Amino acid sequence: MVDMVAAAQGVSFGLTEEQKMLQKMAREFTANEITPVAAEYDEHAKFPEDIFHKARELGLANMNIPAEYGGVGATALEECIVSEELGYGCTGIGTSISTNGLGSLPIILGGNDEQKRYWLGERLANQGQFVSYCVTEAGAGSNVVGMQTRADKRNGHYVINGSKIFITNASHAHFFTVFAKTNPEAGHRGITGFIVDRNAPGVKIGKKFDKLGQRASDTAEIVFEDVEVPEENRIGQEGQGFYLAMRVFDYSRPGVAAAACGLQRRALDECVKYAQQREAFGVPIYQHQAIGHKIADMAINYEASRLLVWQAAWQVDAGIVNPKVPAYAKAFAADMATRAAVDAVQVFGGYGYMKEYPVEKLLRDVKIFQIYEGTSEIQRNVIVRELFRS
Q1: Which of 84, 303, 373, 377 is catalytic?
Q2: Exposed / middle / buried, residue 317 (Cβ in 10 Å: 0-12, 13-18, 19+)
Q3: Residues 6 or more apart from 119 whose CB is under 8 A from it?
Q4: What CA–CA distance (Å, rounded) separates 120 from 381?
Q5: Checking DSSP bridges between strand 234-235 and strand 191-197, what pairing results, if any?
Q6: What is the pLDDT along the chain (390 residues), one digit of tens a residue?
Q7: How many helices (H) and strands (E) does the chain have?
Q8: Using an 8 Å Cβ cutoff, are 223 and 214 in contact?
Q9: Which of 146, 332, 343, 377 is deepest in the core (most CB within 10 A)?
Q10: For this structure, is 373 an active site residue?
Q11: Contacts 24+ apart (CB under 8 A), 203-208
């Protein structure tokens, strides 16, 4: 018989005092620095560089860089705590702040000590630079193996040709972690990761995209034309890039799902506040079951999403490799955030469709959660693959 007391002691749904302090700091930062300017940054598609540097000074950016390289050395759960709070204020600004975490992951997971000391320590932690993660191409989004960017080895260096699309923070990044094919005939075993400096000859920032939502997050195209990359900028061994990229997603998806939780909680809070003030047929609208139940479902789905996120983060911190759990968290949180944003507009009625109320922006911002870092369909493919793995 299971010792229920021992089992209960092995599981905790609470935060430590340090984590509560981190959550409080991130919540206050969001309330003071993000929420008041979110609409302005959204309207003008303004990149929040000033907010990023304020976050960096507080340790709310570059969180996953190990302490020995000048970073915070935060756990995955701590990253998720902060990601939710930033997402509550604006998921576009939150994405801009957290993208260094994604861009640095290939170096953290696959880089050598020298690469970590220079690119993570000197460039990111000390100089406060930006890094972008470059996998997606015009003809290769979900199908990573379909990428066409080439890296040909010549005389002790690599020459990269190709382009990447929908790259977050690309217009402002000082260097890139780039995945390219070193052996096109080898399928997924022919992909390799590289660190590419923005100032390398042949690196060109292309079209900046005008987006539906998360407009404070810069998204652009990058073109590589005969870009020479020294061999010491290769991340890991040749042919290991696909496996590295998949590991990156296992680490990064909980944080993205956490940002979706932040948007859910914002939708819930706005609806609770509005539904108490707005009256219809002589009573506050939350007393009408059609409205009250929508808001109750938001609360249920938010709590369930956050628990999945925390489980996925716990798994990362415990060193457990199980791609199903990050996929559960990313798919469910993205889908439930989308539902929350749609229902929030419905609760607000005609006012929800107007820019003077915040739920209009939530609806525009939320859709990308079902697309980036692996679409909701891809998450389900991962889950099916793992469920039926022999």
Answers
A1: 373
A2: middle
A3: 104, 107, 111, 131, 175, 195
A4: 33
A5: antiparallel
A6: 344 334 345 678 899 999 999 999 999 999 999 999 999 999 999 999 999 999 999 999 999 999 999 999 999 999 999 999 999 999 999 999 999 999 999 999 999 999 999 999 999 999 999 999 999 999 998 899 999 999 999 998 999 999 999 999 999 999 999 999 999 999 999 999 999 999 999 999 998 999 999 999 999 999 999 999 999 999 999 999 999 999 999 999 999 999 999 999 999 999 999 999 999 999 999 999 999 999 999 999 999 999 999 999 999 999 999 999 999 999 999 999 999 999 999 999 999 999 999 999 999 999 999 999 999 999 999 999 999 986
A7: 12, 10
A8: no
A9: 343
A10: yes
A11: 203/176, 203/227, 205/170, 205/171, 206/163, 208/171
Write out pLDDT tens, residues 16-40: 999 999 999 999 999 999 999 999 9
Whether the model clears a pTM of 0.85, i.e. scores above it, the answer is yes
How far is residue 79's CA from residue 261's CA, in Å, rounded to a whole number? Answer: 13
The CATH 2.40.110.10 domain(s) of the chain lie at 131-238
Numbered ranges of CATH 1.20.140.10 in the chain: 242-387
Which 3 state secondary structure label does DSSP give 150? strand
- The domain 242-387 belongs to what CATH superfamily? Butyryl-CoA Dehydrogenase, subunit A, domain 3 (1.20.140.10)
- Provide the token pair at 76: 């995955």
Which one is the CATH code of 131-238: 2.60.120.1200, 3.30.390.30, 3.40.50.150, 2.40.110.10? 2.40.110.10
330: closest CA among 259, 385, 262?
259
Does domain 16-126 correspond to CATH entry 1.10.540.10?
yes
Question: Do β-strands 219-230 and 131-134 pair in parallel, antiparallel, or remain unpaired?
Answer: unpaired
